[in-house]
Each structure stands twice: as C-alpha cells, then as structure tokens.
C-alpha cells in the first residue's frame, strides 16, 4: 500500500521528495532542505554518495540474491568482517537482517536459545526485561519489550509481555531525584526487578544506550551502563544494547557503548549500517553465545529470506569502507563538539527550550512552556511539531517526538545530521534551527 493511499498519518502534509544531494533533499518544486536528522538518524553518509551507489550497482550486475540456507557469498563475509572489526571486545559474530525491528527480534531469540543450549530445554531463562520510555521496533515482539505506551496501547494485550523498569531521564527523573545524589536508582531498579522475578527466569535485559525516538536523545550518566553490565554479570543475564539508532558512528564512537567501555553480549544495529542505501540491520554477538550453539544443537533456530542478502551486504561493506577511508566517525566526534556547543547556545537563548542534550551527532531538545518548572505545553498543541513545521519553512528537517503522549516525558525533537557534515554546514544548520525555533516561539505566543 502506497503511503499516499494509506499514509502513516492522515494529519501530516507530506513533502514531495524529488532527489537528494549530500546533506540536502530537494522537493518537486525545487526547494532545498537540509536533512538535519538524516531521515531518522539513518542517512549517515548523506544522499547520493557516488561510492556507495557504485558498489551497490556493481553487486547488482553480479548477483542480486542467493538464498542464505544454501549459499555463502564473499560480499556478506566482507560486510560482516567490516562490522565486527568496529565492534568492541569479542563481539565478533554478525547476523544480517533487513532492519532494526528484525535485529531486535533476532537478539531476543538468540538470548533465549543461548540458555537452552547451555542449560538444556528445561532452562527457565526466557524473560527479557525492558525499560519504559524506550523504542525497539514495530513488530509484536519488539513492542513487548519496549515501553512507548502510545505505540503499544492499541495492540494490548500483546502475545508476550515483558517487565519494565524506568529509563534514565535526568531532566524528568522518575524517582524525583537529582544526579549524582540519586545514586543511580534507575540502574538499581534493574537489580530490584531481577530479584522480584527471579534471575532463573530472566534471559536478558535490553536498552538503548541513548534513548532515541521516544524521548529525544536522553544521555544516561556515565556510571549507568557499567552498572548495568555489572548487574547482568552478577545475575547471569545477557545485556543487549539496542544500537539501531546510536550505532555505526552516530555518537562519535563506533558504538555508543564505547563511550563507557562496556561490552554488551549482543548489539542490535541497523539504520547507519547501510546508511539508507539498502534496507539492512544486524546483530553482533559475543563468542560464547555462538560457541554454545555450535556445541549444542548446531543451528540458530531463526532465519529470514533476506539474511545476508548480497545487495544489502554490498551497501554495508561500502559504507564501512567509506567510513574508514574518510574518517567519518572522527568527523562525527569533531563536528559533534561544534554542533553541540551551538545547539546549547540556541537552547539557552530560547524561552521554550528546557534542555539540550546529546553526544556526537545525536542531539535532543526538550520543548517547555516554563523553563524553571519544566512544565510542558498543552498536549494538544504538539509543541515539537510546531517547531518542526517552522523549521521546514526554513528549509531544515528535524525529528519530532512526544514523550507527552506516552506519559513519560515532555515534547522533544532531535537533531542528527549526516556524519559527513562540514563546518560551514554546521553553521547553516544552526542558523536555520535558530530561525525555526524563533518562528515557533512567536507562533505559540500568538
Ligand atoms: N530500535 C531503535 C532504538 C530504533 O530507533 C528503531 C527505529 N527507529 C528500531 C529499533 C526499529 O528499527 P526499524 O524501523 O528499522 O524496524
């Protein structure tokens, strides 16, 4: 069903995309838009990158598909090796899928199978703990472990429900505490939940290193992920990092967990992996998980037709080659410093921005009615959308979300330009954003 016949939202005025060029997308009337959020933090190399297109075309001319149950291909091996090389610790094993939701589903199944292989079919370890204020995908399984109520409510009861703990969200702390006096109650909440359920029933805990689409780039305190790692180790539970949005260089490191030197048991990733040039995702798993399957049943009880398909693999291999050759992750870290400083300045100067937070090239804004009390605007105003529309008029695309609808936060939007952004383009983005926010401020005041 075409989006125009069955649009995701009947309330949205869709822009008519014509073509892309670097950081920009042009509409059919020829208006130029700076892609300030890389779609949804996907187009890490910008649009129409000639090297990636050439690599994909080359593969297309050679072999478009070979079923993964029978064939291995050099291109899939090359792509997997390139991804594994960037992952920390012994995260050496890559399994390709078609997108982020499939990657998370794959991670959840691998976690369960690991314990069955290790402990036998009687293993009770099947529960995955998730967090409120999180997004892990649109399929039923990923919805069960995620906490965005707006996205879940209509589909309850889910086939499988999972227990959840609060996310980190220092600006609107679930425990009404302040960091660091809080002692990271949000991390201790995991231990508490494990004790309530019983570690013998729990296979894994899943979280986004930086909460993305539900709350606008919420960065946890530095101690948080090392604490999660320690708790999971203590109770023999696998730690899954959902790096669908934060992975592949987005935050100025290869993977976001690298900021805290944490090695999760499984990383689920997608978006930046093929940077929008092919529908791709994947998991990266530590060696002991794969060893358990090798020494047990011998096969991961999972599979999709498009696992490791040559076209996506060609895009992944080319994206990772390009990132290495052009030092794209280093650029993301450098430009991130510049962008972050400029965004914070804009936030300080605006009456409706309560907080600006982020890492690398993943930044979130909290839109508020009152900066002192943090009171959000009335829900029906959809303040983040007001800012988005004003920015579109200025020729800048940003990524809005509303934690208000989920009942877990305020109105937010994200800035996440392609990782190949240059210094003049950072300036251009800042100017456009400042103008958009001022315009939104005036529109709201009227
Ligand atoms: N996990 C996270 C953290 C995401 O941000 C997303 C997509 N926004 C997904 C999973 C789902 O990915 P996809 O849309 O490719 O299925």
UniProtKB/TrEMBL annotation:
<dbReference type="InterPro" id="IPR015421">
    <property type="entry name" value="PyrdxlP-dep_Trfase_major"/>
</dbReference>
<comment type="similarity">
    <text>Belongs to the class-III pyridoxal-phosphate-dependent aminotransferase family.</text>
</comment>
<keyword id="KW-0808">Transferase</keyword>
<dbReference type="GO" id="GO:0030170">
    <property type="term" value="F:pyridoxal phosphate binding"/>
</dbReference>
<dbReference type="InterPro" id="IPR005814">
    <property type="entry name" value="Aminotrans_3"/>
</dbReference>
<dbReference type="Pfam" id="PF00202">
    <property type="entry name" value="Aminotran_3"/>
</dbReference>
<dbReference type="InterPro" id="IPR015424">
    <property type="entry name" value="PyrdxlP-dep_Trfase"/>
</dbReference>
<protein>
    <submittedName>
        <fullName>Aminotransferase class III</fullName>
    </submittedName>
</protein>
<keyword id="KW-0663">Pyridoxal phosphate</keyword>
<dbReference type="InterPro" id="IPR015422">
    <property type="entry name" value="PyrdxlP-dep_Trfase_small"/>
</dbReference>
<dbReference type="GO" id="GO:0008483">
    <property type="term" value="F:transaminase activity"/>
</dbReference>
<keyword id="KW-0032">Aminotransferase</keyword>
<dbReference type="InterPro" id="IPR049704">
    <property type="entry name" value="Aminotrans_3_PPA_site"/>
</dbReference>
């Amino acid at each position: 069903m075409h989006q125009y016949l069955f649009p995701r939202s009947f309330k949205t005025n869709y822009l008519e995309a014509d073509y892309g060029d670097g950081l920009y997308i042009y509409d059919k009337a020829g208006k130029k838009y700076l892609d300030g959020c890389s779609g949804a933090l996907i187009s890490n190399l910008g649009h129409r990158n000639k090297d990636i297109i050439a690599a994909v075309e080359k593969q297309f001319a050679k072999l478009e598909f070979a079923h993964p149950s029978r064939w291995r291909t050099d291109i899939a091996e090359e792509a997997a090796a390139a991804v594994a090389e960037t992952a920390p610790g012994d995260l050496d094993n890559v399994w390709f899928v078609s997108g982020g939701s499939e990657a998370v589903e794959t991670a959840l199944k691998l976690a369960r199978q690991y314990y069955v292989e290790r402990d036998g079919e009687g293993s009770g370890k099947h529960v995955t703990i998730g967090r409120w204020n999180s997004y892990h995908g649109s399929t039923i399984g990923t919805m069960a472990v995620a906490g965005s109520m707006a996205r879940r409510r209509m589909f309850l009861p889910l086939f499988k429900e999972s227990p959840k703990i609060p996310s980190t969200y220092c600006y609107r702390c679930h425990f009404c505490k302040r960091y660091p006096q809080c002692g990271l109650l949000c991390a201790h909440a995991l231990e508490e939940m494990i004790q309530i359920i019983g570690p013998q029933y729990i296979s894994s805990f899943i979280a986004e290193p930086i909460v993305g689409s539900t709350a606008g780039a919420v960065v946890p305190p530095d101690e948080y992920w090392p604490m999660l790692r320690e708790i999971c180790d203590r109770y023999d539970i696998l730690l899954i990092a959902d790096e669908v949005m934060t992975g592949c260089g987005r935050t100025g490191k290869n993977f976001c967990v690298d900021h805290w030197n944490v090695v999760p048991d499984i990383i689920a990733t997608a978006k930046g992996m093929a940077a929008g040039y092919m529908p791709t995702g994947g998991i990266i798993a530590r060696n002991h998980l794969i060893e358990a399957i090798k020494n047990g049943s011998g096969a991961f009880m999972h599979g999709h037709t498009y696992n490791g398909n040559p076209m996506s693999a060609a895009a992944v291999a080319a994206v990772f080659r390009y990132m290495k050759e052009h030092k794209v992750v280093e650029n993301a870290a450098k430009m991130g410093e510049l962008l972050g400083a400029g965004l914070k300045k804009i936030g300080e100067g605006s009456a409706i921005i309560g907080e600006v937070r982020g890492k690398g090239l993943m930044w979130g804004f909290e839109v508020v009615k009152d900066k002192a009390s943090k009171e959000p605007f009335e829900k029906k105003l959809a303040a983040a959308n007001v800012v988005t529309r004003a920015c579109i008029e200025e020729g800048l695309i940003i990524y809005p979300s509303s934690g208000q609808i989920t009942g877990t936060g305020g109105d937010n939007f994200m800035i996440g330009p392609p990782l190949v952004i240059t210094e003049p383009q950072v300036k251009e983005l800042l100017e456009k954003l400042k103008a958009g926010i001022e315009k939104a401020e005036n529109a709201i005041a009227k």
